[in-house]
Design brief:
alpha/beta, Rossmann fold, 6 helices, about 25% strand
Length: about 200
């Protein structure tokens, strides 16, 4: 089996300056064989432009049929760069079943900065039993928040046991604002509410 007739693998890495693409074949020994590599400028305003440029270039160099590609793998440092550089949108954090003192844990308050936070009663215990949910304060705040943020992060107490209150808040926010909402149970099944809230906040940005 020749390199070009064997299954091909396309690797893409989007960095802060360049987007690199490499086409690799599993034929050609234990380590396979690199058929072609190419790069294009990373286009931060629309990452698809730079990615397409790198992919088109590597396929042209290899003179291969895209249908022969078995797997596409993509990596990027852009999310890490954004965190280090303090970039990202303004996000409203919705904490259900938590107290204001919980913001002091796991670096949550520092990451939040001047972004708004709304506390609602509710959440669940370790067995998944619910406390009474009250989203009236959130609903009242949504017109103002919706005009000043680019998205929402929702974290409820023990949502890893029962995500119902996060889902209720998420649906309300989407209905009233149409903005993106990230819920903590979608990102992590681990315990530790403030840490989940931090992960959710950073993801929402």
């Amino acid at each position: 089996m020749t390199a070009k007739s064997s299954p091909l693998f396309l690797g893409i890495d989007t960095g802060g300056t360049y987007t690199d693409a490499v086409l690799w074949s599993e034929a050609g020994g234990a380590n396979g064989k690199v058929l072609a590599k190419a790069k294009a400028l990373t286009t931060r305003h629309d990452l698809a432009v730079g990615i397409s440029g790198a992919v088109d270039a590597v396929l042209q160099k290899a003179a291969t049929d895209p249908a022969a590609i078995k797997l596409v793998s993509m990596s990027t440092t852009l999310a890490t760069n954004a965190l280090v550089e303090g970039q990202g949108g303004r996000v409203a954090l919705v904490m259900i079943g938590f107290a204001e003192g919980d913001l002091a844990r796991d670096g949550l308050k520092a990451a939040l900065g001047t972004d708004p936070v709304v506390f609602c009663s509710g959440g669940h215990d370790v067995h998944g039993n619910a406390a009474k949910l009250d989203l009236s304060g959130l609903e009242a705040a949504l017109p103002e928040l919706g005009a000043s943020v680019s998205g929402f992060a929702v974290c409820a107490y023990f949502a890893t046991r029962n995500p119902a209150h996060e889902l209720a808040a998420r649906d309300l926010i989407r209905e009233k604002t149409g903005l993106p909402v990230t819920a903590s149970h979608e990102l992590s099944a681990k315990l530790g509410g403030p840490r989940r809230a931090l992960t959710t906040l950073l993801n929402a940005r």
